[in-house]
Amino acid sequence: MRIRNAEQSDMEAIMAIYEEGRSFMRATGNANQWVNGYPSRALIEGDIANGNCYVVESDDGAAHGVFAFIIGADPTYTIIEDGAWLNDEPYGTIHRIASDGVLRGVLAEAVAFALERTRNLRIDTHEDNGPMQGALAKAGFTRCGIIYCEDGTPRIAFHLIG
Question: Are 124 and 155 in contact (CB under 8 A)?
């Protein structure tokens, strides 16, 4: 596996990966996350333009995973309820991570990639996303509390210090 910056030419593969991710969520009891076409094509195009979108490729160069990685303060992480972040140091955030299910270990690869760039890593997920919560625990993340997305919906917040 390798990780590289996504390009506009990756858009169809990326959107197919997100569709597979939405299908997996629905099949595993998570019908409330990534609804109404989220993440949108426009959002992903913005991630690519800003250099924040990455694809996870197999050895043959096919894209099987995608995520956004952003270093810097995330406005939705300013207020955390029912807990606290592990520290207040600068951090990076993984958002919108998805896999088409072909490659195993996409989250682990994304976490390793991010930790090469920052020692503090944050991520969040929906309370109904049991598979992601399990994967985050396996990756060493600590549940820290509840944050709220821009639309006001709650998410479980996690933090990892590398």
Answer: yes
Mean pLDDT for back-to-back runs of 10 residues, the chain (162 residues): 97 97 95 92 97 96 97 97 98 97 95 98 97 97 97 96 96
Q: 83-89: which pairs have CB atoms within 8 A and are 24 or more residues apart?
A: 83/143, 83/144, 83/145, 83/146, 83/157, 84/144, 84/145, 85/122, 85/144, 85/145, 85/157, 85/159, 86/120, 86/142, 86/144, 86/159, 86/161, 87/120, 87/159, 87/161, 89/119, 89/120
Q: Which domains does the chain have, with CATH numbers?
A: 2-161 (3.40.630.30)
Read off the pTM. 0.95
